[in-house]
Amino acid sequence: MRNAMKTKSASNFLQNIIDEDLASGRHSEIVTRFPPEPNGYLHIGHAKAISVNFGLAEANGGRCNLRFDDTNPEKECQEYIEGIEADVRWLGYSWDGEVRYASSYFQQLYDWAVYLVEQGDAYVCDLSADEAREYRGTLTEKGRNSLHRERTVAENLDLLARMKAGEFDEGARVLRAKIDMASPNMNMRDPILYRIRKVVHHQTGDNWVIYPTYDFAHGQEDAIEGITHSICTLEFEDHRPLYDWLLEHLPVPARPRQYEFGRLNPSYTVTSKRKLKKLVDDGVVKGWDDPRMPTISGMRRRGYTPAAIRRFCDMIGTTRSDGVVDIAMLEFAIREDLNENAVRGMCVLNPLKVVLTDYPRDKVEELHVSGHPSRDDLGQRVIPFTRDLYIDAEDFREEANKKYKRLVLGKRVRLRNAYVIEADEVIRDAQGNITEVHAHTVPDTLGKDPQDGVKPRGVVHWVSASRGRNAEVRLYERLFNHEAPGKGDNEFMDHINPDALKIVENAWIEPALGEALPEQHFQFEREGYFVADRYDHTPEKPVFNRTIGLRDTWNAG
Ligand code: ATP
Ligand code: MG
Q1: Segment holding 154, helix H or strand E
Q2: Each residue's pLDDT tens digit, 126-138
Q3: CB 74 within 8 A of CB 199
């Protein structure tokens, strides 16, 4: 499995199509677009779509546009637009020219709607939503023609102009393409092109009270922008005949083609803006960029890197089937990146004081330690060693058998990067809890084995109690405790993992970690990969988020 994932990328049927189009001369330059609707923040599924669209343009010396598909003003806003731009940039992609908006083509789209009416290819229909549904038929039953289907061109032009002028109420009338109510493809049964929506639009204000549907907007926008390959997900496959029909019936400047690939559905995750918005609105998480969220901004705050996300998107390939991808593949990608690139450090999450009774009270030794075991370019760090230290409470037992490779009373352990110590005695409080362990150093064991030949049982991490820093550490787990949230009779909310965040207020870190910059990545030795929180971390109050644990359970299987 590991080897398979190390190969550059799975085969990509889209690249094959592009190769043919370049070879045959159908296109000399590849132009793609990523068309998010600004009705939420982007998630891991969008990262896949971004990597496909920007990646294919990049790989073929072409261009990729960022186009906001903003035809549903009531659910959209400027905050989402800015968030989406930041996410695409953070992933390391740049769009061609200015950001584009479907809304900037509204006049052209309207002019084309008029053109269709003039050609006898569209009509204004007054059926109510309920009537229209009934007339539409079903998958097994043909639809029926609307009674307004045979209106004259003049009457349709008049009604369309009056729809645009705001004379009619929402829902009173729509513009429909005149195609075929008997088509086996429901999308071809006189689909709606324009509907009345009396809402202010974030880009066009109150200029418009009619808005084009996705179907009427998308292909025409692609044509305006000279998109060669309009790549979308499989749910649009049945819309392709309509996409083609509109381009064939309109005087558009270019002839884009639509291709579909399977959506990315990682296990233990939801990838639907509607569901993610509910998690935010219901206060299950603290916002779209909460580190538990599978949003790009959430993953960023959690400590995922653009390189790991891009690598994951590459690893899973691009196919024409909708399957579930093991989230452990993403976790593999982030571990692999951080193992290679994150500076090492020590952090004690559950501190237990160790007093080295033989070590002078005021002595401080500065230990110079490499920042990374195999990367000299990541420099050195200085760790103060003192008489009072913290180790993790999990790393001490009064008694234990030989399998326990940590500190035991009367036995030895090596402090990572420092001396071997031997535990002598425990100090308890009035309730009998251990408050301190008294120990002594084994002489001349800095970087050397004990001379008496009695080896330490293992290695534990530690932090100086007098020189270390107090930190808040946020321990994150998967947000859902079921591989398919909402499976069976459940709601996706039933599968929320209540332990997806555990806050450790009283962790201890090496002093140098206090100087970490927000978003700097670390491996805390023996604990996992952590990142200094993008917003809350300061030198006065260090805050770290656990990105992922060290153990690669997926690869072990
Ligand atoms: P959602 O269902 O989360 O609301 P959407 O498809 O409505 O997503 P858009 O903003 O319309 O979101 O998506 C922009 C682009 O991203 C589209 O081309 C869409 O096909 C693609 N996309 C969305 N979700 C995924 C996914 N899970 N995997 C791959 N591509 C996706
Ligand atoms: Mg959509």
Answers
A1: helix 153-164
A2: 999 999 999 999 9
A3: yes
